[in-house]
Design goal:
This protein is of the alpha/beta class. The chain is elongated and about 125 Å long. The two termini are 78 Å apart. The structure holds adenosine-5'-triphosphate. It is found in: Membrane. It is a multi-pass membrane protein. Keywords: ATP-binding, Membrane, Nucleotide-binding, Transmembrane, Transmembrane helix.
Length: 596
Amino acid sequence: MASYSVCVSSGCKSYHAGVPILANLYMQVETGTIYGLLGASGCGKTTLLNCILGQKRLDSGYISVLGRDPVKCMDDMVTSIGHMPQDIALYPLKIFEIFEYFGKLMGLSKHEILARGEELRNILKLEDLHSYVQTLSGGQKRRVSLAVALLHHPKLLILDEPTTGVDPLLRESIWQYIAGLVFKMGTTVIVTTHYTEECRKFDKIGIMRRGRIIAEDNPRHLLELGGSLILEDALKSICKKDEEDGNDAYDFLSTKTISNYQYCEIEPLQEDIKQLSFRVRQYDSYLALVLLLPAMNTVIVYYTMGRVPFGKVVSVFNENADCFGGNTNFPHMEVNTSLSCLFLKEIGPNIILQPQFSRNSAKATVESGSAIGFIHIPANFTRHTINRYALARFALGQDLDQSTVHVSLDMSDSITISYVYSDILKGYLRFVENLASRIGIDPRTVEIPLKYNAKLDSHEFTSQDHFLPSNIVSTCFLFSLICGLSLTLEKEAGTLERTLASGVKIRHVRMSYFISESATSLIQIVLMFAIRFLTAGYNITGSFFLCFSIAFLTSLASIGCGLLLGTIFSKRFDVTMASVFAVLMIVQTSGECSNR
Ligand SMILES: Nc1ncnc2c1ncn2[C@@H]1O[C@H](COP(=O)(O)OP(=O)(O)OP(=O)(O)O)[C@@H](O)[C@H]1O
C-alpha cells in the first residue's frame, strides 16, 4: 500500500472573507515521487505550499505532512523538509556564509556544510562560494536558493518554481539530479512550475484551478484524458472541460481518508541564537561606517550648531567721533579718547565693527545681509554721557537722549542675535564701569543690581550646553530605530519567512536583532562619547556614568520601538513613515529644538 508524504483533505483558505483561495482542496503526494503542481498564475499554488509548510493555516480541512500536523509539529520536521520559496529570499552575504547559516540551523556540522556546499556548487554550476549573493544574476541566485533547500538531504523537498530563469541545459541537469535523489534516497518532491513540458517526467501532476485540484494523475493518463500528445494542450482541454462542467472537479483520488495522520506535542527546537548573530555582519563592508556615523554626526553638530558666533559684522554709524581712522574696509580701532570709541573698544572680539558714514548706509548693510545689525551713536555722546552719570538725578532730558546708543538688530536669526545682543550689552556695562571710576563715582552705582549665581555650574552657558545633551539622546534614538526597517526588509525579501521555515522562532529573530543592535549601539555610543568629549574637548560636569547610561538606555528603548514597528508593519514605506514620526517626536520633545 502506498504511503503518502503529504495529504490535504477538504482544504479551505481565504485571505479576505468571501474570496476563497483554496476551496475544498484534496491532494495526495506519494512518498518517493515527484509531484508537479500546475495551474494559472494566482490560482493558489504558493498558498497551498505555505499551508503544507505550516507557515499559513487552513481555515478548515486537514493537512498531514510526513504524518504530522505541519502547524503544530513543524519544529520537529524542519530538518526533514527543504523549501525553495518563489522569491529569492537570501541574505546579502557570501554564498558559503548562507550555506553555513542555513546548514547550521539544519543541524549540519561545519565539515558537512563545506563538503555539501562544494558538491552542490558542481551540480548546480554555482559561482565561486566566496561571491556575494547580491552580485549574482537572477538565475544564479535562484540556483543558490535551490542549493539551500537541498543542503541537508531533506526527505520532503518543496520547490516553488525552481527553474525559472535557468537555461534549458542546466534545467535538464537539475531535474536529472532531483530524479536521482528520488530514486536513490526516496525523497518526495513537490514542484510548482510554469514550464509545463518539464512535468512529463514527473510521477504525478496535480492541475489546480480556482482553489481546487481538478485533476491529479500521471502525465500519460492526463495526456489521454486531454486527448493530446502535447501536455500543455491536454491540460488546457482538461481546464476547459472543468469550466464547461460548471467547476465540478475530476476526482482521481481513490480515498480521501488520511490513514497515518497523527498529532504531536510541540517541542521547542533548541535553536542557537548565535546562529542569528550574523545580522551585524550584514553590514560587513560598511560596518566601520555604520559604527562611526553617530560620531561623525556629533562632530558635524559640534562644529555647526549653537556655537558662539564668530566674525559677525555690525555696522557703526558714529556721529560722535571717527574711531576707525577713516578706514572703512579694514576697521581697525584707532586710539581715541572720545567715549564712543572707548565704548566700541569694549564690544567683544567676536563682533567685527564696520564703520558707515550715514544712518541709511548702515541700515542698508543690514537689509542686504552683509551686517547682522547696526549701532548709531549720537553726535555729542561724550559730553552727554558724562553729564548723565556725573550729574545723575540733575541730568537734563537732552543728556539722557543724546547719551543713548541706538542698536538695531536683524532678529530673524534669534540664536546668533542673542550672542550679539549680549556682547554689546556687556561691552556697554564694562565701558560705563570704567567711566564711573574715571569720573570718581563708585562703579557699583552704574552696575545693574542683579547678580546671577549659577546654581549648577559656574561656567557660562552657551546654547550648545543647552541642546547637546538632547542631541545625544535623539542621535541614539535615531540610529537604533533603524533595526525596525531591517526587520521589514527581511520580511519583504522573504528571508524572514525562510528563516522561520528553518525552525527559528520569531522571538529568537527579535532577540538576535536586539542583541546585535545593542552591541552595535554600545560601540556607536562609545565612539560618539570619545569623539565628543575627548576630541571636541567637551566636558561632562555631572556623572559620566549617568550620562552614558541614559544614552545607552535610549538606544535600547529605540531598538524595542524599532522591532515593534518592524513587527506591526510589513512594508518599508509604512515603517519608514512611522520611524520618521517617532524621531520627530523625540527631537521635538527632547528639548533639542525647544525649551525643556
Ligand atoms: N498574504 C496575502 N494576502 C492577501 N492575498 C494574498 C496573499 N498571498 C496571496 N494572495 C492572493 O491569493 C491568490 C493566490 O496567490 P498565490 O501566490 O497562492 O498564487 P500562485 O498560484 O502561487 O501564483 P503564481 O503562479 O503567480 O506564483 C492571489 O490572488 C494573491 O493575490
